[in-house]
Protein: N-acetylmuramoyl-L-alanine amidase
Amino acid sequence: MVKIFIDPGHGGVDSGATGNGLLEKNVTLQIALLVRKYLTAYEHVTIKMSRTSDKTVTLSARTNEANNWGADYFLSIHINAGGGTGFESYIYSRLSSSGETAKCRNIIHNEIVKVNELRDRGKKQGNLHVLRESMMSSMLTENGFIDTKADAEKMKDKKWLETVAKAHADGLAKVFHLKKKAHKDDRYTMTKNTPGYYTAEDAKKGKNKKSTMLPGKYYIYKQASGMINITKQKGVPGSWIDPKGRK
Ligand SMILES: [Zn+2]
Structure:
């Protein structure tokens, strides 16, 4: 299980930056909740958030929770202010720019700037509490300037929030090699008689054959290590097969 800790910046009595009728705490929460939503489409990932509502949470409470939980990654989401424009990301200032944390950040940063339609202000380093006090790899994103009209307009657009959140999730999926869960209504068409097995492991090895699966349309119940579990009854486990058709 990969443990991802998502930290929407600010909250409660701390609004964060403000501008153009927006409060940073609300924008960060919207993005963070969407990141969680997109991450749940992946297998073997479990998510915790420093807050899921407009709640006051201290910086040390955030890092303590992630540290005690043993998170594999700490992702902090913020909105910038101060009259600039664009997107930037941070890792802790004392880390090497070629280390593991930097590599992860680069992957996620690149996924985000591909789609966020904001100027790329660069991959930065900073001495910020959540980056310094978190024991795992961590990154903080600054998703545009709330006090710059063009950036703020984007933050008011639900589609943009979804795009930015999905890019955060896609980046994390890349870093941790996460695989998408099969959808219950995904179909699989079998064109020839194929051996079915009790487990994905058996299917992979071609051992302990359970049955012969006949050609036809099936639902995909589950996927694991290149093998798929196909079933005639949607949502009910069937048999494991090797989709590459190994005998
Ligand atoms: Zn902030």
In short: The chain has a mean pLDDT of 95.
